[in-house]
């Protein structure tokens, strides 16, 4: 059973990797309008800086500890061993389970080229999986009419599980807005699709296990990620140390 515990600014779910898979599938099978936030340091700092966004994350039905720093935060704060439950591994695991259970999936977000590549890859890797739809929305603020069209399109698709690839914080805001409107579970997968299809390489497992995956990503995309990692990682370490000192005093 998943239980949420506070890590600085957000409530993160705690449990085994398999318990997360089971809980996500249960929502999907029962068609509960719900959403899952896959939380890393970037999301935690965004939530710390923006109370409105923190509310969106904390109202999620499940918040997974995506990054090793968050998983290790449970040990640091609560002396609990916590599995890392990252979007990169959740995506293929959930697709396999959906194929096995005959659940249909929908992809919302990302550019059309990425979605086309993902569709081709999925047809080969998961031949009996039901793909209810793939949609690339405009890269701008949507009108109310467009939001209603998206909502109806997803309803009509009959999808059980929606993979949302809009990036943080946009995807979490979108899922929160759609909760109660679409009869499916939504999960934010950020930039997992290019790695999933092999278009982008993932860090070696030893780097993943030692909280160094961010270094590998930084080498791949230095211009885009340098400022983010410098700011968010430093602030996370500062806030964690500050919280620990507070509990000791």
The coarse silhouette is globular
Largest sheet: 6 strands, parallel
Which ranges are low-confidence, i.e. pLDDT below 50, for 5 or more consecutive residues?
A: none
SSE order in H/E notation? EEHEHHEHHEHEHEHEHHHH
- Largest sheet: spatial strand order: 4-3-8-7-5-6
Q: Given this structure, which CATH class is correct? A: Alpha Beta
Q: Within the CATH hierarchy, at the fold level, what is the topology?
A: Rossmann fold
Protein name: WecB/TagA/CpsF family glycosyltransferase
Keywords: Glycosyltransferase, Transferase
Organism: Pedobacter panaciterrae
InterPro entries: WecG_TagA_CpsF (IPR004629)
What key phrases describe this protein's structure?
249 residues; transferase; 12 helices; glycosyltransferase; alpha/beta; WecG_TagA_CpsF; 16% strand
List the helices and strands and how they pair.
Layout (H helix, E strand, L loop, with lengths): L2 E5 L2 E5 L2 H13 L4 E6 L1 H9 L1 H8 L3 E4 L2 H11 L8 H15 L2 E6 L2 H14 L4 E6 L8 H14 L3 E5 L4 H9 L6 E4 L3 H6 L7 H5 L3 H8 L1 H27 L1
Parallel strand pairs: 3-4, 3-8, 5-6, 5-7, 7-8
Antiparallel strand pairs: 1-2
Helix pairs in contact: 2-3, 2-12, 11-12
Q: Can you describe this structure?
A:
The chain has a single domain (3-197), classed as Rossmann fold (3-Layer(aba) Sandwich), CATH 3.40.50. Helix 2 (41-49) crosses helix 12. It has 249 residues and is α/β, with parallel strands linked by helices. It has twelve helices and eight strands. This is WecB/TagA/CpsF family glycosyltransferase. It holds the Pfam family Glyco_tran_WecG. It comes from Pedobacter panaciterrae. Keywords: Glycosyltransferase, Transferase.
